[in-house]
Amino acid sequence: MNHFNGYGENYKNSSSGQGMELSPDEYHTFAVYWDENGYTYYVDGKEDGHNPSPVSKVPQFILLSTEVNGYRVGATASDEARLAVGDTFVVDYVRVFDATEE
Q1: How far apart are alpha carbons 36 and 56 in whole angstroms?
Q2: What pLDDT shows up at residue 44?
Q3: What is the dihedral of CA 38, 42, 45, 47, to 10 degrees?
Q4: How far apart are CA 23 and CA 6, in angstroms?
Q5: CB 17 within 8 A of CB 2
Q6: Closest CA relative to residue 63, chosen from 20, 1, 18
Q7: Measured over all CA atoms, what is the biggest interatomic distance in the chain, rounded to whole angstroms?
Q8: Which long-range CB contacts under 8 A does 27-30 form with residues at least 24 apart?
Q9: Engineering a disulfide at 16: which of 29, 42, 49, 73 sits with its beta carbon 3.0 to 4.6 angstroms away?
């Protein structure tokens, strides 16, 4: 899911992906390739979707969150998220690469 235009009244989002069925008993890898053509998403090394726009042209930061408590003003957790509180959210590693010219 791409979120853009801030979190105020101008907030927008667009999604892509196929909603792969993933086993909660296994580790999975998630990746995003970001270039001038959009964002391409990968799950366990397989392309899961592409979102062509809008493409950010400024530096960004990574936010790893389940948003269970809804950190945005006016955001509320789903019933499923509330029931999951206390479960474990394990992140083994995060890597960021700069694209290089070939």
Answers
A1: 8
A2: 93
A3: -70
A4: 33
A5: no
A6: 1
A7: 48
A8: 27/90, 27/92
A9: 49
Tell me the one-letter amino acid at 74.
Answer: G
Report yes or no: 51 and 16 within 8 Å, Cβ to Cβ.
Answer: yes
Question: Within the chain, where are the H helices?
Answer: 79-84
User: For residues 60 and 96, what is the distance between their CA atoms, to the nearest angstrom?
Assistant: 11
Number of Cβ within 10 Å of residue 41's Cβ equals: 20
CA atoms of 28 and 98, how far apart (whole Å): 22
Q: The dihedral of CA 21, 96, 16, 71: what is its sign?
A: positive
Tens digit of each residue's pLDDT, the chain (102 residues): 777 887 788 888 887 777 778 888 888 898 999 898 999 999 999 999 899 878 888 888 887 776 655 555 566 666 776 777 666 677 888 888 887 766
